[in-house]
Amino acid sequence: MKRLESGIVNLKFSRFALRFGARIALATFALCAFALFTTEAWARVGGGHSYGGGGGGGGGGGGGLGALVYLIFRFLLWLTIEHPAIGIPVDIIVIILLIYWFAKPAKKPVSIVSSSPVLGLSTGPGTGPQLDVQRAFNQLRRFDPNFSEIIFTDFCYALYGRTHEARGKGKAALDELSPYLSDAARASLLQLNSPQLKAVQGVIVGAMQVADVRGLASPQVEISIEFEANYTEFTPRQGDPRGEMSYYVRERWQLERKRDVLSPTPEQATALHCPRCGAPLQKDTSGACAFCGARIESGEFQWYVRSILTLSREARGPLLTSHVPEVGTNYPTVTQPNFPAVRAAFEQNNPEFKWADFQARARLIFTELQEAWSSLNWERARPHETDSIFQMHRYWIDAYKAQHLRNVLDRYQITAMQPAKIKQDAFYQAITLRIFAQGFDYTINESGQLVSGSKTNVRRWSEYWTFIRNTKAKPTAARADLNCPNCGAPLKVNAVGICEFCGGKITSGEFDWVLSKIEQDESYSG
Predict the structure, then answer these.
(1) C-beta of residue 192 within 8 angstroms of C-beta of residue 505
(2) pLDDT band at 321 (very low <50, low <70, confident <90, very high)
(3) Residue 399 main-chain phi, psi, to 5 deg
(4) CA 491, 497, 501, 503 torsion-angle sign
(5) What are the tens digits of pLDDT across the range 399-424?
(6) How far apart are CA 374 and CA 42, in angstroms?
(7) CA torsion sign, 291 to 297 to 303 to 308?
(8) Tens digits of residue pLDDT in 182-226
(9) Across-strand partners of 465?
(10) What backbone phi and psi angles, to 5 degrees, belong to 252?
(11) In 3D, which of 282, 262, 268 has the Cα closest to residue 155?
(12) Closest to 50 measured CA to CA, from 321, 400, 314, 394
């Protein structure tokens, strides 16, 4: 009887030990997983410091992980020797979990290649809808040969930023954009404003997706666009004179325009002036253009936003020292539908183009931007960016300066480049590269003290960078040096991107490739 009772006690203890061991193992595994996959968020050029559409973690690791593993190993060893009834079951469970973890297939393996002229490619999600959009745009060019997807995208980016900045100034400022925004669209945006709102700044469009194109068989065409963006609102209140709060938002904009209208040239496309006469946006007492008298309430002359729907809006807090995890680095590369054929046609039509030269220029621009960002000297980046993206980056540099902070990208390097898309229209050629990089990414104050990030843990990330070149550019090799691509003099441009030696507008892409857009890989869809 005593043996039976003893056996029952041992069985109960063994079950207890197994349950306790399982809990210890799960806790141990959770600690390991936390150490492996939890990273601080760093800041960097391109919006990765602030843009974040979802959860998840990026790369990381370092001495802290090794120390944690060592302590866990010592604990398990002690538990096995001192309390084998508990330690041995825990060891078995840990071993089983480790075998399962390392044996299971990886999710969403990334397709990357080395930076060589011959590049492999993969297709990604969203291929079907994007193919339909491209067909629709090709059909639209039959009625409007000037239509350029590149110019249209720049126009939408410019209008989006200008609209939210105007919203921060109040109803009167937003009403000035009535030639581009309907009454309903403006009213939906004003609903976001609190009574104390003083400004909306730092608008970053992380992704813009054309969701639908309709009406090509009718006199009026409609385009539905979805934005993912960040912006910062300033709402002063008692105890918080700045009232700074940043938001991650998703919005759907419905645009319309007469199908047969000829799109404006690149020089006029992003300048938000009267769509009819081209004069500055000024209205008389009746709400009509103060110069031509036109009261614009439709897309008779230019794209017109009929409605704006806020799909989601999440407060993210101040962004300069925020902790936004890296998302999407391990996602497969999203490439243009039928990209191999598109690339072959592009190479055949541009025999002077060499992938090695283009990638060398992309590396030069990448390096100059990182150095400009880390040194808070954004004028260094001026020759390499279009006007719109330069203005966005300069805002963030000024924001860091105002708070006496500096984000540093140290010992960074590009690990791979992968072409994802090639576009060409009447005005521009555009190539999108997915750039994989790594480095130490941290923010310090003016005393040199670490505020966020890490000087020891390597940050790994990827982004989609789009470079454009004017179709009228001379058929010469892309430059990978710091000389003017037009006159060859040392590269020195003024505030508007004009070479101080030859007077050429370097940042327009008229002479060589310049950076037009940076998109985060968790939201890029082609």
Answers:
(1) no
(2) low
(3) -65, -40
(4) positive
(5) 788 888 998 989 999 999 999 999 98
(6) 12
(7) positive
(8) 999 999 999 999 999 999 998 888 778 899 999 999 999 999 999
(9) 433, 518
(10) -115, 120
(11) 268
(12) 321
Residue position matching structure tokens 């350029």: 148
Structure tokens at 323: 């902790």
Q: What is the pTM of this model?
A: 0.65
The strands making up 514-520's β-sheet, listed across from edge to edge, are 405-424, 428-445, 450-470, 514-520
The amino acid at 66: G
Q: Which two tokens mark 20?
A: 């306790």
The number of residues making up the chain comes to 526
Whole-Å CA distances, 448 to 323, 405, 407, 442: 20, 9, 11, 11
Q: Which two tokens stand for residue 164?
A: 């939210």
Two tokens at 314?
Answer: 């999440």
Q: Which tokens sit at 389?
A: 């993206």
For the CA atoms of 435, 441, 447, 449, the dihedral, rounded to the nearest 10 degrees, stands at: 170
Q: Alpha-carbon distance 130 to 209, whole Å?
A: 9
Exposed (0-12), middle (13-18) or buried (19+): which is 12, by Cβ within 10 Å? exposed
| Residue 206 and residue 54 in contact, taking contact as beta carbons nearer than 8 Å | no
Provide the 8-state DSSP code for 507.
G
CB 442 within 8 A of CB 456: no
113 CA to centre of own chain = 21
Highest mean predicted confidence (pLDDT) among 67-76, 175-184, 308-317: 175-184
Going 65 to 51 to 397 to 464, the CA torsion angle's sign is positive
Secondary structure class of 205 (helix, strand, coil): strand
Beta strands per DSSP E along 196-294: 199-214, 220-234, 244-258
CB distance 268 to 301 below 8 Å = no
Query: Taking the alpha carbons of 460, 103, 56, 31 in that order, is the dihedral positive or negative?
Result: negative
Residue 3 sits at φ, ψ, to 5 deg, of -65, -40
Distance CA(46)–CA(49), nearest Å, equals: 8
474: exposed, middle or buried (C-beta count within 10 Å: 0-12, 13-18, 19+)? exposed
3-class DSSP state of 251:
strand
